[in-house]
Amino acid sequence: MADRVDGIIDHYKHLAIDDLEDAERASLPAKDPALFPSALGEDEESTDQGPVALSLDDLIEHMEDSAGDALAKTDLNDIDTVISSTSEAPPAEDFAQDQQPDDRRENNLDPEARPEQEDGDLQEGNAEELFAAAAPNPSPQEPTDPPAQTPGLPAGNADELFTGPNAVSVPPHKRRRRKGPSGESATKIRSRQETTPLSPSAKYNIFAEQADLDALLLNMNIDLPAQDKVQLGHLRKQKLESGSVAALQSNEEAQGKYLLIPRFTRFIYEGTVYNCTVKNLARTFISVFADIKELMQYKSHAFLNGEMPEMGWGIVPIEPPPATLDKSYMEQTQYLRLIATTVGVPSHMVRRRTLVEAIYDIIVGQLALDTPPQSKTLDWTATGPSKTDFICVGLSEQGLRLRHLNRTQRNQALGLCPNW
Q: Per DSSP, which regions of 169-257 are E strands?
């Protein structure tokens, strides 16, 4: 704006003064004091500055700029104001416009200077370019991984697609030889070899005696419901095929040391069905107990009427293993975990017997088996009158004996008979 004002002044000053210097001063009209009563003084009448200033003002007032617009008369104070305002920093938009590169300035031309292009008039294939332009560019600070290169794959053989740099390719004819005579794959042959049972010579007979259900019921003078007999027949087969039996049969030390005893939750005595609880066993087979008073001290506890054996077949040793003798209750529990880990069976498959299971097994051994269990030692059961005391059971010359001991107690005759 300041440059524009200075240019206008210089232009018209040149026209007003230079032309007047060349013209004859005599041809100029005389000053009329009546026209300028206040503008001319006595000193001004002898000079020519008055007419020059008048001509300059008149020219500036009536002349037009190059664009054809009339120039308004500008006072000197207005010019100072314009110059001071233009000395300030230009607007950010004008500065950014000046700093744009040449190619961007061309894009900011007036609509008349741009080539005409209608909206939506996209040439074929430009859509992909639009999406490519909209994709984010990677940051210069972030490293850009080179594109992965896929090596050429051999054609014609699908098996070779899975061979890595360290893999060894097996010819097709050798792979076919790995199949068995019946067409089984190598995987099936491998699984069949892993699950192949041991040869009969590698098995050991772990049972000193296996109870027969019919003979047992006859010797004990009791009976079972028909459905319970059928169920026990199926459970016996499952028990002999279980993993615990297979693990014991592979151990030479277990040979001839276990009894197979059927267990049931109810029995029929003199036409009445009774639950197989400690209380009902004591009433029915009271002759087996050495002193019934040893049992009466627990009459207020729930396990006398609440505990019942688990339906099935139990595998128990005739006597506790020597490793469990003279051990505390907690040390015996650790032994159970050790043998479960050593044999490779779940921990719940090797556990302590409850009081009703221990009493029932001794009654069965005394009445129906040739080898009565726990005739030399005591078995520490999982049942007790408190959290620190547990009941131990054994068979003496007088009969079945039982008492509770603190879990920290130790004795050479006190052991644990694991139930498999």
A: 207-210
31-51 b/e with 16+ CB inside 10 Å = b? eeeeeeeeebeeeeeeeeeeb
Report yes or no on whether pTM surpasses 0.90.
no
User: Are 366 and 401 within 8 A, CB to CB?
Assistant: no
Output the six-digit token pair for 201.
């010579």
**Structural contact between residues 255 and 208, judged by C-beta atoms closer than 8 angstroms:** no
Distance linking the first and last C-alpha atoms of the chain: 108
Residue 419: closest CA among 315, 343, 339, 318: 315
Per-residue pLDDT tens for 67-119? 444 444 444 455 445 444 444 444 544 444 454 544 444 444 444 444 444 44
What are the residue ranges spanned by the domains of the chain?
Answer: 2-27+34-83, 202-415
Q: Are 187 and 181 in contact (CB under 8 A)?
A: no
The tokens describing 407, both together, are 């879990």
Report the distance separating Cα 34 and Cα 40, nearest Å. 10
H-type alpha helices, 23-182: 49-62, 76-86, 92-99, 102-107, 126-134, 172-177
In DSSP terms, which residues pair with 260 in a beta bridge?
210, 315
Q: What is the DSSP letter of 355?
A: H
Closest CA to 31 of 16, 12, 52: 52
Residue type, 186: A
DSSP H/E element including 315: strand 312-317
How far is the C-alpha of 134 from the C-alpha of 139, rounded, in Å? 15
Count how many Cα atoms sit within 13 Å of the Cα of residue 288 in the half-sphere of its side chain: 26
> Token pair 């560019």 is at which residue?
137
